[in-house]
Design brief:
Strand content of chain B: under 5%
Number of strands of chain A: 10
Distance between the termini of chain B: 56 Å
Shape of chain A: elongated
Number of strands of chain B: 2
Largest sheet of chain B: 2 strands, antiparallel
Largest interface: A-B, 79 and 68 residues
Helix content of chain A: 40-55%
Oligomer: heterodimer
Shape of chain B: elongated
Chain lengths: 349, 221
């Protein structure tokens, strides 16, 4: 097994591959956390780090195809009739490399001389439509957001009546018991209900008589994690990527699809799973139909998209992923691995 | 080599995924990482435009950065230079040129405002520019519009300078807004104008001085 793993590592990385990966990490760290050139944004860094496992998966596909051409499947049949050793070595070596990459990516930003990403609030523009007939507003939050998200309201008091203007405060509440105090000259933070955050739609109750909502200045505010949260976020990436190896092996070995094609198909599946959930306005044209079909497929897959929350708006996609969803995702990976170990006649190159 | 139906299924799957990717309904892992590289390069070109004092180019690249990674500060700064700093009398432009620059800046800021994560600083720049940098003949209407925007800015207490920082004078601004509310409606424009020209006026600096420290024009890079 050890020989198989070392052979796999050699083929995955090449002779000087480790050096290129190290160099890539140094470049990434400079790009993101250089005190003058970097933006020190955790979401951007996480997105760049996610490139690593994706490249390793594509590389694994290329190696499998290379081995197929070299007659490895026939060797496997002759040497190991139960046929689990080679797939296991492939998972073990590629998974080990993914974990090593994520570990290095976790340690890298702590090096001295690099800018530190700050924890705090992040703001996102949201479109506030015209008020409903009862004066309330139905907000489309453009996807799910964390349960502790708030909507920042700018309220104009100039048209309020004399009593309200001189008081400078007003109570603003909803029928469900949520209540805040509006203060003239201050931003108001309206808390969202957990189900509003998870559905990506919220209802703002009508403002007190005479107060006006400045709709273009309304923003969504979510908590953004700092560097201390990086290990947890990268661990979530590991939980996302490792089962993909099993799914890929099922595609390539049990399905007998060429390695590179199977790797791209697995990445496309990962892209679908990683698509943030929530309501989406889809066009009624052909593209909309394709998107609907894909979202239909996504409905059957476990909701683990938050494990791969990356990019500039990663903070608004950070959710607690249920243990059941993670378990289902891993079960898919394990089933894929089991399917890959099933005995098949040798592949033809 | 493989089950032909599975091969076709895989190819169809990949074709559908490619279409969905182009339509923005798929998020392959790592794709945003490539976008990060692109926006990093855009940020370097923005800095280069700053070193060359090329304000229209800065505005264009600032808009790109806002769209690529939702970062509002470059667009806000380009808007500040166009709408407020460059048309200042000390820059030596003719009155017409200054008014044209300010017009460009205001159009730019108005267009960026809905996309800005923190719109309040842009609102303040826009209000200042409308009230104090208006073109001859359009002054009254623009001034009133600017004062209205200024009142909106005050209603948010100056808003958040960035996502983590409340405006430094938030309490002072909130107190001033409450004072505005206590005044009769007909007195408000005059009160707002005097305050805008006094306490809440944007700092006016020479563009040359402003660009140098921001973009490190000291041979450090």
């Amino acid at each position: 097994m050890r020989t198989l793993c070392f052979a796999m590592w050699r083929q995955l990385l090449g002779r000087w591959g480790w050096l290129w990966w190290g160099l890539a990490l140094v470049v990434l760290l400079r790009l993101h956390f250089d005190p003058t050139l970097g933006r020190a944004h955790l979401g951007g860094y996480l997105a760049s780090v996610a490139l690593g496992p994706s490249i390793l998966l594509l590389r694994l596909g290329a190696v499998l195809q290379q081995r197929r051409r070299q007659g490895w499947p026939l060797e496997e049949c002759l040497r190991n009739p139960s046929a689990w050793r080679a797939p296991f070595a492939e998972v073990l070596s590629t998974g080990g490399l993914i974990l090593a990459w994520l570990l290095l990516a976790c340690l890298g930003p702590h090096l001295p001389g690099l800018a530190q990403p700050r924890a705090g609030q992040e703001l996102f523009p949201i479109t506030v439509p015209q008020a409903n007939a009862d004066g309330s507003w139905t907000l489309d939050l453009e996807g799910r957001c964390p349960p502790n998200a708030q909507v920042l309201l700018t309220v104009d008091w100039l048209q309020a009546d004399e009593a309200l203007r001189s008081a400078g405060t007003a109570t603003y509440g909803a029928a469900d018991g949520r209540q805040i105090t509006l203060v003239a000259g201050e931003l108001a933070a309206w808390p969202l209900l957990p189900q509003e955050a998870s559905q990506g739609q919220a209802l703002l109750p009508p403002l007190p008589e005479g107060l006006e909502l400045l709709r273009p200045l309304t923003r969504l505010s979510v908590d953004s994690p700092g560097l201390a949260e990086l290990p947890r976020l990268l661990w979530a990436q590991a939980l996302f990527f490792l089962p993909l190896l099993g799914i890929f092996l099922a595609w390539a070995r049990a399905g007998r699809i060429r390695g590179p094609l199977a790797a791209w198909a697995t990445l496309a599946l990962a892209g679908l799973v990683a698509l943030p959930g929530g309501n989406q306005d889809l066009p009624a044209d052909a593209l909309g139909l394709v998107a609907r079909a894909l979202l239909g497929v996504k409905a059957f897959l476990p909701g683990v998209d938050s494990l791969l929350a990356t990019g500039d708006d990663f903070a608004r996609h950070l959710q607690a992923t249920s243990f059941a969803s993670i378990l289902m995702w891993w079960m898919l990976g394990i089933l894929g691995f089991a399917a890959a170990c099933l005995r098949r006649p040798p592949f033809r190159p | 080599m493989s089950s032909s139906w599975l091969l076709w299924l895989t190819r169809t799957w990949l074709a559908l995924a490619a279409v969905a990717l182009l339509a923005g309904h798929l998020k392959p892992p790592g794709l945003e990482g490539l976008g990060e590289l692109q926006s990093w390069w855009t940020a370097r070109r923005y800095e280069q435009a700053g070193l060359e004092r090329n304000l229209p180019r800065m505005a264009e690249l600032g808009e790109d950065l806002l769209q690529q990674r939702g970062e509002g500060a470059p667009a806000e700064f380009a808007g500040y230079l166009l709408a407020w700093a460059a048309p200042s009398p000390s820059m030596g432009y003719s009155r017409e040129e200054s008014a044209s620059l300010a017009d460009q800046g205001r159009t730019y800021l108005r267009a960026q405002l809905p996309m800005q994560p923190s719109p309040w600083p842009s609102l303040q720049i826009l209000a200042n520019s409308l009230v104090l940098r208006s073109r001859l003949g359009q002054e009254e209407a623009e001034r009133l519009q600017g004062l209205s925007l200024y009142a909106s800015w005050m209603a948010a207490g100056g808003g958040m300078v960035n996502a983590n920082l409340q405006s430094s004078g938030a309490e002072r601004t909130a107190a001033a807004y409450r004072e505005l509310l206590r005044r009769p409606a007909q007195e408000r424009p005059l009160w707002l104008a005097s305050r805008l020209q006094g306490e809440d006026a944007l700092p006016l600096q020479d563009t040359e001085q402003l660009l140098a420290p921001v973009f490190g024009d000291t041979g450090e890079r």
